[in-house]
# Entry
Amino acid sequence: MTIWKTAAALPCWLVDDLSHDDTMAAYYMMAAQVDGIVVQNYEGQSVVDVIDEETPYSHLSRGYRSNKRLLFHSDGAGLTALLCLDVTARGGVSPLVSATTLFNTIRAEWPDDLPLLERGFYHHRRRQHDPGEHPHSAKPIPVFDFHGGYLHCCYNRNPIDWVEKEGMELPAEEVAVLDHVDALVARTELQAVMEMQKGDMQFVNNFTILHSRTEYHDDADHRRHLVRLWMEDPRSKRLGESLLDLYVPGTSRFQAAHS
# Structure
């Protein structure tokens, strides 16, 4: 099972010895060899620090600002890059699951789920939109879709559940299908687990990989600190819609390819 498009690391001593700006410059230079860096939130940030800001994880915030467990999901852009600047005292492990394996397992075990998964679900936009715009997506976002003959996956259970906060009820049959997906990605035999150490970099294709994060706890000596980039490649074989269309409308490869 191929998890990373590529994986690399800056030596731990290099992260410790370089200034923060020089470390970031080295990170950006390596990332630029993979794909182009894009904006990843409504606030216009192209770089975000993944640290515990003691912000509650809810429909009003993004998960990278919390230390809470994140369910298996795909991020907004074609690729996500992470650089580990420091580790936590406890937790913060990152399991990953192949979306192709997930699709094939559902097709084998719960084939009747596929029509709903291919139709998709509405997503809460988590305040990542202009005032007056609707707080959830204008249309269902497919969990599984095919563009150019290639499978694309786009999944995040929490924003799907959170549409109920806007008065949209999820029918029991939809909840059952989502529960099946969550039960499958929880199978340890489908997971590859990465515990990032200082200097590690991870590049994950969001159309082909789902990732998670266990809850973590910092202490006085260890504060988990990752730096996240979202990246896009207009030459990619996968040009499907992504959550960039939800949080940063008009910036995805899908929009560019079809404008």
Summary: The chain has eight helices and 14 strands. The first helix runs from residue 12 to 17. Confidence is low (pLDDT under 50) at residues 1-7. Residues 51 and 171 are 35 Å apart (CA to CA).
